[in-house]
Amino acid sequence: MMRRRALLALASAMALPGTALAQNVWPSRPITIMGGFPNGSGVDIYARKLAEPLSRALGVPVVVDNRTGAGGNIASDHVAKARPDGYLFLFGTAGTHAINASLYRTLPFDPFQDVTHVALLGDVPNVLTVNPEKRPQYRTCQDLIAAARARPGALNYASTGNGASTHLAGAQFAAAANIEITHIPYRGQPGAMGALLAGDVDLFFNQTGPAIAAIRQGQVRGLAVTTRDRVPALPEIPTVEEACGLPGFESSTWYALFAPPGLPEPIQRRMNAEVNRIIAEPEFRRWLIETQGITPPAATTPEAFREIHRRDIERWREVVRRSGATVD
Q: For residue 210, is the peptide bond before it cis, meaning its omega torsion is within 30 degrees of 0?
């Protein structure tokens, strides 16, 4: 009888994802990184780049699954309610887990509590872009501001969706410059970029990663970056403070890796260590900085990431309030 009970206890322990036995054999099957934005978005590009070396490090396939919609909330809600067994992670952003906390009147999950903080992946600036063929008159940021002041509300700007960083950067810019420009949201980066290339909109505060190639090919003109310092990948483009005469202007976000709440700490620590090791590799770091315009994270522990997340929820709450943006 005692031997039978011991065997039953062992079988039960092996079935539980949070036990030491389950953690010791993790990972034993493919891992999914879920994203909330379309193929070709900055999130998608980074997630797929990270998946390959992460798969080699963990010894199992790491696949990317994008579930788009509701500003990333569909994917975020799915992961928030998933089993914390170490086989599903979320490629989140300051948009999905800091901005959305204030932007949406109600959410089906708590952006701060319903996650396990795994690792920061980098700081993401935006770049103010125009189409030089469709809008040749906008050669500088000052040209753009002058045109907007001459015709309040006539100029419009694309975004990747209501409340996205590409929207709020434009709202911050309009408030700081004391101009009125009309916001036109699109579903994701490809749609917004397509509108700029087609001449349907006047400007777009695009994320640097998807914008760099178009800038280098001359398809779009970069007028200013939204960080305090110039972006190494685009050293020729001044900051908003320099180019637009708006002291102290800054509007950047971050990418991060989350897991469902309750992820066992050994899995959290292992994934954190592997991600940070990959980001620190010279080739990967060069890719981040030079081709995506992303600054590798200074904070590398889950605890430091959690504190940055907490502060950013408060910071973006004020930006959202001033922008007047809301989503039901």
A: no
Long-range CB contacts for residues 22-26, cutoff 8 Å, separation at least 24: 22/85, 22/264, 23/86, 23/264, 23/266, 23/267, 26/86, 26/266, 26/267, 26/270
Instruction: Please give the model's pTM, rounded to 2 decimal places.
Output: 0.80
β partners of residue 91: 35, 257
> Which are the contacts of 12, defined by CB distance < 8 A and separation ≥ 6?
none
Q: For residue 16, which phi and psi values (nearest 5 degrees)? A: -90, 125
Q: Which of 197, 251, 195 is nearest to 224 (CA)?
A: 251
CA-to-CA distance for 61 and 31, rounded, in angstroms? 6
User: pLDDT 10s per residue in the chain (328 long)?
Assistant: 444 444 444 444 444 444 444 456 899 999 999 999 888 888 999 999 999 999 999 999 999 999 998 889 999 999 999 999 999 999 999 999 999 999 888 999 999 999 999 999 999 999 999 999 999 999 999 999 999 999 999 999 999 888 788 999 999 999 999 999 999 999 888 899 999 999 999 999 998 888 999 999 999 999 999 999 999 899 999 999 999 999 999 998 999 999 999 999 999 999 999 999 999 999 999 999 988 889 999 899 999 999 999 999 998 998 888 777 777 6
CA distance 224 to 109: 35
Q: Give the angle 202-165-158 at the CA atoms, nearest 5°.
A: 20
- Alpha carbon separation from 260 to 134, 154, 255 (Å, rounded): 45, 44, 17
Strand bridging mode 252-259 / 116-130:
antiparallel
Q: Residue 45: helix, strand or coil by DSSP?
A: helix
Distance spanning both ends of the chain, measured CA to CA: 59
The Cα–Cα gap between 291 and 311 comes to 29
- Sketch out the chain's domains with CATH numbers: 16-124+253-323 (3.40.190.150), 125-252 (3.40.190.10)
